[in-house]
Design goal:
Elements lengths: L2 H6 L5 E6 L3 E8 L4 E10 L6 H16 L11 E5 L3 E2 L2 E2 L14 H9 L3 E5 H12 L8 E7 L3 E7 L2 E3 L8 E2 L2 E2 L1 H4 L1 H6 L4 H19 L3 E5 L6 H4 L9 E3 L6 H13 L5
Parallel strand pairs: 1-4, 4-7, 8-13, 13-14
Antiparallel strand pairs: 1-2, 2-3, 5-6, 8-9, 9-10, 11-12
Helix pairs in contact: 2-3, 4-9
Length: 267
């Protein structure tokens, strides 16, 4: 088997890129273990975060990662996350990036900029996919809901290990408000809520989600998941609830996994 063939067989490492509002980070992903090979490489998100500017940063990160000894083949596909709704490769929402992204064919733009196949997935979906395969949801059948508490509330809907994309559960209406305006991590800080008070609000939200979908498991992600002992005691749910395992690498891992699945490169 040639070196190129070794690098393109199923579950061979691939590059994943995670686009955020403040930083864009990437890494080479071991798809057998769901872990990064080597360090992440991060570049601040350009301001304004226009399609051209972001595409340039993504290309910069891919170029840096491609110089590493463990890099995949130069023509291997790249997975990218984006903080918005992605449908058929087109951006349908852009909350924390420039509005010029709306209606942009992001798959096409990145593919042309990088000169190699690119698949883009919603950032919360990517994190959920990674958690379901390698993290807290590994081996769990039925519905797994990954809820990310941060600036807003991100969500990923996994059924029998398969992603149901673009489940924007943070925008469910609770007591007349978008849930994420009251129960996100930023909302807790903004409103000066104690952990007890926040736990009550989060419980109200999660009970509503549980009623709608009856998940086998809730997985809570985001930086606030590190403080779960502060608010988990206030959650009264039928479904088991645990914290995410992959932490800040989930988006990168999920991006690489998504592109591998799309190109039939993952077992």
């Amino acid at each position: 088997m040639s070196k190129k063939d070794e690098k393109t067989h199923k579950n061979a490492p691939l590059i994943g890129i995670d686009i955020g509002g403040t930083g864009i980070k990437g890494g080479i992903v071991d798809l057998k273990k769901g872990k990064l090979i080597g360090d992440r490489f991060r570049v601040p998100t350009p301001q304004p975060a226009t399609p051209e500017a972001v595409a340039d940063v993504v290309a910069q990160i891919v170029e840096e990662l491609s110089l590493r000894p463990e890099a995949p083949a130069a023509d291997s596909p790249v997975g990218v996350t984006f903080p918005g709704i992605i449908q058929h490769g087109v951006v349908n929402s852009a909350a924390n990036v420039d509005k010029s992204w709306l209606a942009t064919n992001i798959d096409k733009k990145f593919t042309e900029r990088l000169g190699r196949p690119v698949e883009v997935i919603n950032d919360a979906d990517a994190a959920g996919l990674a958690e379901a395969r390698y993290g807290a949801g590994e081996g769990v059948d039925g519905t797994v809901l990954v809820i990310t508490l941060g600036t807003g509330i991100g969500s990923a809907f996994i059924f029998n290990g398969q992603l149901v994309p673009n489940a924007e559960l943070g925008h469910l209406e609770i007591d007349g408000f978008d849930a994420e305006t009251k129960a996100s991590a930023v909302a807790r800080e903004r409103d000066g809520l104690s952990w007890d008070e926040y736990g009550v609000l989060l419980n109200r939200y999660l009970q509503h989600v549980e009623f709608l979908f009856s998940p086998e498991l809730f997985i809570i992600g985001g930086g606030i998941s590190k403080r779960s002992d502060e608010y988990f005691p206030h959650l009264q749910l039928r479904s088991p609830i645990v914290t995410a395992k992959l932490k800040n690498d989930a988006g990168i891992v999920g991006a690489a996994l998504e592109v591998a699945l799309h190109h039939n490169l993952a077992k």
